[in-house]
Amino acid sequence: MNHFPIRWKIGILVASLLFATGLVATTGLVILRQVNGLIEGMVDGTARALVLAARTRSQVLRSVLSERSSLLESEDRPSMMFADESRAANARTLEFLTELEGVIDQVASPAERRALDEFKSAWNAMTKNQAKVLELTVQNSNTKAQAIIDGVLTEQFNRLRGVLQAQVNGTQKALVAWDGKEPEKARREFSRQRLAFQTMGLADKLRLNLGEHNQATSEAIMSRLEERIEETLGQLESNLRDLSESTLEAERTEMRAAQSQMLDIRRMAAEVQKQSRLDTNNRSLTLSSTVGADSSKKADDAILLLVESLSKKLMEDKKVASASYQSAIWITLAVSLATLIAGSLLGRSVINAITVPVAKVVEALQEIAKGNLAHRVQVDQKDEIGLMVHSLDQVTTNLAALLAQVKGGAQGVTSSSGKLTRLASELMNQAEETTSQAGSVATGAEQLNSTIQSMAGAAEEVSMNVNGISSASEQISVSISGISSSALAASGSVDAVNRAVKAVNDSLSTVAQEASDGSRRTAEARSLAERASATITALDRSASEITQVTGTIQAIALQTNLLALNATIEATSAGEAGKGFGVVAAEIKGLAQQSGQSAGEITRKISEVQESVRHAVETIREIRNTFNDLASGSSRISESVASQKAAAEAIARSAHEANQAVARIAQTIQEVSKGSSDMARSAAEAAKGANEVSSNTSEAAQAARSISENILTVSNTSRKNAESATTLNTSSQDLADIAMSLESSVQQFRLR
Amino acid sequence: MNTSSDRMTLCTVRVDNQQYAFDMLAIREANQATPCVRVPGAPAEVLGMVNLRGSLFLLLDIRLLLGLPTREPAPQDLLVVFRPSQGEAFGVLVDSLDDAMVVPTRKITPRAENDANDPSPICGVVLNEHQPIPLLSPSLMYRRVKNLIGTRAPLEKHS
C-alpha cells in the first residue's frame, strides 16, 4: 500500500465509500418495499371489509330501531317518517353489503363467507317482514277506533245521560209530591224511573263492548261482541221509544232529540267496529315481535360474527407487519455495521499511508524553522512524499554548511566593532561635555557684553547731561549776580524815592524826575527777573532729564546685578573651572552696585537742586510782583505827585514795603546763590562719578569682550570635535549593530 | 547636593519681606519677569507659561506653595528658572534677588523626613549669624504640582 501513488490511494478510499453507501441503500429499499406491500394489503382488504361489515351492522340496527319507533308512534305523520327512515337504512345496508361482497372475496375464509351468506338470507327475511309491518303500522286503525270511542261517542253518551238524568229527576219529583191517592199514577212514575236507569246502564254497556271489540285480536271474540253490540243498540232504541211515549207532553221534544241522537250513536258504533275489524296495529305488532325480531336477531348475529372474525384477522395481519418491520430494521443495521467496519479499516490504512509521512515532514520543517539544521526525516516510501523528503534533506545539508561559514565571519566583525564603539562613545561624551560648558559660558558672556555696552552708552549720556547741568548752573550763577546787582540798584532807588517823598513839599519836579527814574529802573529789574525765571525753568527741565537718566542707570545696574548673579550661577555649576570667571562676575556685580549707588546719589542731589530751584522760582515770582506793585505806585506818583500828600504817603508806604521786599530779595538771592553753588558742586561731583562709571564700564566691557572671544574660539573648536566624534560614534555603532544582528541571526541555527 | 561636600553656594531671595535660600546649583538662571500666559484647567498653583528667549517654562506660584496670600505678578518681580534636574524646567516669581552666599554645610540643618504628602517645599534651615533662612527645594515644589495635576499629560515641553 505504501508504494502506491497518492491518487490511487484516494481512489480506493472513494470507491469503498460509494460501495458501502450503495449497499446500505439497496438493502433498505428492498425491505421497505416488502413492509409497504403488507401494510397496503392489510388496509385495502381486511380493514376495509371490517369497516364495511361494521357499517352494515349499524344500518341494520338503525332500520330495526326506526321500525320500532314507527310502531310505537300513534300519529300518522311521524309514524310514516320513521317508516321512511327504516326503508332508507335498508337501502344503505344493501349498498354496503354489495361493496362488502366485492371486498370479501379477496380476504375472507370459508367461515366468514358462510357467515355473510347467513346474514344475507336472514336480512332478506327481515326486510320482507318489515315491509309488511311498516305497511300495516302506518294505518293505525285500532288507534283511530279508540279515538272515536274516547271522543265523539263519549260526548253523545254524555248528552244522552243528561236527558235520561232529567227524566229520573222528573219522576223523583212526582214521587215525592205524591199524595197517595192515585196508586196507578205512582206505579207509572216508578216504572219510568226504572226504565231511565236501565237505559243509562245500556249506554255504558255499549261503550264497554265497543272498547273490548277494539282490543280484541281473534275473529271469534269480535263476532260475539258484534252480536252483543247490535243487541244493546236495539234495547237502547226500544227503551228510548218507551220513555218517549210515557213521558209528559212537555218533555217529549227532548226525548225525540234523544231518539235521533241514537241514530248517530249507531253510525259511530258501526264505524268503530269497521276500524277495529281492520286491526292493523295489533297485527303489525305481532308480526314485528315474532317473525321480525327473530329474523333481525339472526341477521345481527351473523354480521357480528363476521365483524369479530375480521377484526381477529386484522390483529393477525398487524402482528405479521410488525414482525417484518423489526426484521427489516435488524437487516439494515447489520448491513450498515458490516460496511462501516470494512470501510473504516480500508480508510485507516489509506490515510495512514498519506498522513504519517506528511506529519514527519511537518515536524522536520518546524525544526528547520527553529534553526535546527541537523534534523533528518526518516521515511521509506517511493511515492511523491518520499521524493519530497529526499529533496528537503539535501536542502538542509547545504544550508547548514553555508551558515557555518557566515558564523565565523560575523564573530570576527563583532569583536572589532565593539572595541571601536567603546572608543568613539568615550570621545563623544568628552566632546559633548566641553561643548555644552563652552556654549553656556559663551551665552552668558555675550549677554554680559551687550549689557555692559548699553550701560557704557547710558553712562556717557549721564556724563553729558551732568556737564549740561554744570553749565546751566554757572549760567544761573551769572544771572543771579545780575539780579543781585539789579536788586541793589533797586534798593538804592527806593532810598532815593524815600528821600524824594520826604522832600516832596520842597520840589515836585525833582520828585517827578526821580519817580520816572525809579519806574525805568524797576522795569529793568523786572526784565532781569523774568530772564532769571526762564533760566531756572530750563534748569528744572534739565534736572528732570537727569532724573530720568539716573532711573535708566539704576535699571541697568539691576540688570547687571542679575547678569552677574547668572554668571555666578554658571560659574558655580562649572565648578573649579568657573572659579576665575566667578571672580570677574563678582567684580562686575560690585561695579554695578557702585553704579546704582552713584546714580541714587545723583538722583538725591538733583532732587535737592530741584527743591532749591523751586524755592528760587517762588522768590523771583515774589520779586516780580513787588516790582509790579512798585511800577504801578511810581506811575501813580508821576500822575498825582503835584497835590496828593496822601499819595505821597502811600508812596512812602509802598517804598517802605519795597525796601522790606528788597531786603528779602537780597536774603533770598543769597540763598539762591548758595544753592546754585551747591548744585554746581554736586553736579561736578556727579560728573566726576559718571565719568568714573563710564570708564569702569568701558574697562568691564573690554574684559568681557576678550572673555567672550576666547570662549567662542573654545566653543567652536569643541563643537567641531563633538561633530567628528558623533560621526565616528554613529559609524562604529552602525558597524557594531550590523555585526551583532548577523551574529544573532547565525546563532538561531543549530548546525550540528 | 553640592560638588564640594563641606561648603555650599546658596542664592537668597525675598518673598513677602521674608528671606529664603535656594541651592545655586538648582538654579538655571535669573531674569526680569516676562509676560505670563494662563493655562486653562491648570491648578491654582500654576500661574501659567512664560517664554524666555524662545523656551517655554511652567511658572509656579511660590506664594501658594509657601502658604502665603497670593497676588498678581508685578513688573518689578524677578523670574528664577530652575534646572531640568529639579523635575522639568520651571520657574517662580520672587520680589527680589539678594545675593550669592557660600556657607559651610554644617550650618545647614536638614528638615526631618519629607514624605510625599507633605506640601511644604522647605527642605532645611540655614543658620546665618543674623537670622535663620529657610532653604527651599525646587524638586519638592515640582512634585507637589505634579501630584496636583495627576496623570494628565505634561503641560509644557522644553524645546
Question: Explain this structure to me?
Answer:
The complex is a heterodimer of chains A (752) and B (159). Chain A has 752 residues and is mostly helical. Chain A folds into three domains: 6-138 and 303-348; 141-285; 438-711, Helix Hairpins, CATH 1.10.287.950. Chain A is built from twelve helices and no strands. Chain A has helices at 6-72, 76-107, 110-137, 141-176, 183-215, 219-246, 249-278, 280-370, 384-502, 508-574, 579-640, 645-747. In chain A, α10 runs antiparallel to α11. The longest helix of chain A has 119 residues, at 384-502. Chain A is elongated, with a radius of gyration of 87 Å. Chain A starts with 5 loop residues before the first helix and ends in a 5-residue tail after the last helix. The relative contact order of chain A is 0.08. Residues 640-648 of chain A have low confidence and may be disordered. Chain B starts with 6 loop residues before the first strand and ends in a 10-residue tail after the last helix. Chain B is 10% helix and 42% strand. Chain B has a single domain, classed as OB fold (Dihydrolipoamide Acetyltransferase, E2P), CATH 2.40.50.180. In chain B, the strands form two sheets. Chain B has a six-stranded mixed β-sheet with strand order 9-1-2-12-11-10, with no helix packed on it. Chain B has helices spanning 62-65, 138-149, and strands at 7-15, 18-23, 27-32, 36-37, 46-52, 55-60, 78-82, 90-94, 96-104, 108-110, 122-126, 133-136. Chain B is mainly β. The interface between A and B is medium-sized, with 10 and 14 residues.
Q: Based on helices, strands and strand pairing, what is the structural class of chain B?
A: mainly beta
Strand elements of chain A, count: 0
Find the biggest chain interface: A-B, 10 and 14 residues
**What CATH architecture label of the largest domain in chain A applies?**
Orthogonal Bundle
- List segments of chain B where confidence is low: pLDDT < 50 over at least 5 consecutive residues: none
Overall CATH class of chain B? Mainly Beta
